[in-house]
Amino acid sequence: MRLVQTALRCYPQRWRRRHGEEAAELARLLMRDGTPARSIAWSYLKGATSTRLVLPPGRRLGAAMGALVAAACSLSVSLALVSSSAPASAASVVRLRITDRAGAAGQLRSLLRAHHFGITVTQEPVSPSLVGSIITFGARGPSAGRGNVFSGITGPCAGGARGCVDGIVLPVHFTGAARIVVGRAAGPGERYAAAAGIFRQGEILHCTALLGDSVRQALPVLAALHLKVAWDTGGGPASREHVADRRYYVAGGTARSAASISIRVTANKPAGSTAASRHGQNC
After folding, report:
1. Residues 101 and 83 in one domain
2. Are 108 and 76 within one domain?
């Protein structure tokens, strides 16, 4: 925090009175989530420089003084960085992680703003276990070179499963344009932009014990849930009567919306589909 406070002192006094405490608290949260103090300090330093140099026309003396103060602050932060015991490689990337699924998009926007990244965050409707997770991300445009490539951080999903992307890692000096898509809860009848397997923890058929059952066994349960079902036999969609008349077994599937799903069926009973082992469900 001493390093961050050094950078924050580079802002004008008026700015510090209005935003200083909020900026310091954000820095604490970022460091708690694993973001190196060096990268936070540099980000604040760049913001302080911009704040001092963007002045109304005609204030040349003020602009000159602002440039001198920014240079002095840069020197003080540089010296602090040199004296820091953290390795230089720790400051080469920034790690931003979602800790609030309900406000995931807003949290990401705040973290990105704090680092002055030009990255757009949007939301798309998803199946329940993907709510609050990152669905897609990537750099765009001619500046999306090797120095601007970033990657995802894998963590838990809503509902308890694992394998969702709940954070990103990107270069501290990222300058390209990029877009991150975060999953949100779908409205009534809204089609999912992305969906996890229907038997995954948190999903619509989790704990129904239908995985590995015959289609005849599954039909009453699906009817009670009032779900519209498309049956996939591997050769394209099939009718309910077709799969019910023949000996098919439930092998998996995905949701299209909260009321519409696609179930994959096979002619042979899936291996390891006993009640005790089905999909590792902790019901």
Report:
1. no
2. no
Final residue belonging to a domain, choices 88, 110, 138 = 88
What are 205's two structure tokens? 């058929």
Q: Which of 62, 88, 114 is the last residue of a domain?
A: 88
Q: Is 26 helix (H, G, I), strand (E, B) or coil?
A: helix
| DSSP 3-state of 52 | helix
pLDDT at 68 over 60: no
| DSSP line for 57-86 | TT-HHHHHHHHHHHHHHHHHHHHHHHH--S
Q: What are phi and psi of 158, to 5 degrees?
A: -65, 135
How far is residue 212's CA from residue 265's CA, in Å, rounded to a whole number? 9
62 lies in a domain?
A: yes
- In a shared domain, residues 100 and 73: no
Q: pLDDT value at position 143? A: 46
Select the more confidently predicted residue: 278 or 256: 256
223 domain-assigned: yes
In angstroms, the Cα distances linking 266 to 81, 219, 271 are 61, 15, 11
Instruction: Report CA torsion sign: 42, 115, 31, 20.
Output: positive
∠ CA 55-61-66, nearest 5°, is 55
Is residue 66 in a domain?
A: yes
Count of Cβ atoms closer than 10 Å to residue 58 Cβ: 8
pTM above 0.90, yes or no: no
Can you give the residue range of the structural domain that contains 140?
Answer: 93-185
- Range with the largest mean pLDDT of 10-14, 101-105, 176-180: 101-105
pLDDT at 185: 95
Tally of domains in the chain: 3
How many CB atoms sit inside 10 A of residue 265's CB?
22
The model's pLDDT over 208-251, given as tens digits with 9 standing for 90+, comes to 889 889 999 999 999 999 999 999 988 777 777 778 778 889 99
